[in-house]
Write a structure and sequence with these properties.
The longest helix has 13 residues. It is built from five helices and three strands; from the N terminus they run ααβααββα. It is globular and about 50 Å long. The chain has a three-stranded antiparallel sheet. 54% of the residues lie in helices and 10% in strands. It has a domain of 61 residues: Recoverin, domain 1, CATH 1.10.238. It is mainly α and 98 residues long.
Length: 98
């Protein structure tokens, strides 16, 4: 598979992980609930449409940490809209204009 150009900075995700790594599972769950309480969650087809990626490309970026892990709701996977928007914004910011 060809290399994917992904300048996404994992800073915000890493900070959240570092801040909660010593927290109890209940505290982590509460933190996640508060963060996503009023945020729209996107399903995989919508994420693929917005990023113009195919399913395998999208999941490859998830496994590489370029796109955050999904929020699991039962068997469904959802991604916070703000995180997909941030990924797209990072791609746009990394463009070199000639």
């Amino acid at each position: 598979m060809a290399a994917l150009f992904t300048p996404h900075d994992k800073g915000s995700t890493m900070q959240h992980t570092e801040q909660t790594s010593n927290a109890t599972p209940d505290a982590i769950a509460q933190s996640v609930r508060e963060k996503f309480l009023n945020e729209k969650l996107l399903d995989l087809p919508e994420c693929m449409r917005r990023t113009s990626l195919k399913k395998t490309q999208f999941y490859e970026l998830v496994s590489l940490g370029k796109i955050t892990q999904p929020v699991k709701i039962g068997r469904s996977s959802r991604w916070p809209e703000s995180e997909i928007q941030q990924y797209i914004a990072d791609l746009k910011a990394a463009r070199v204009v000639h």
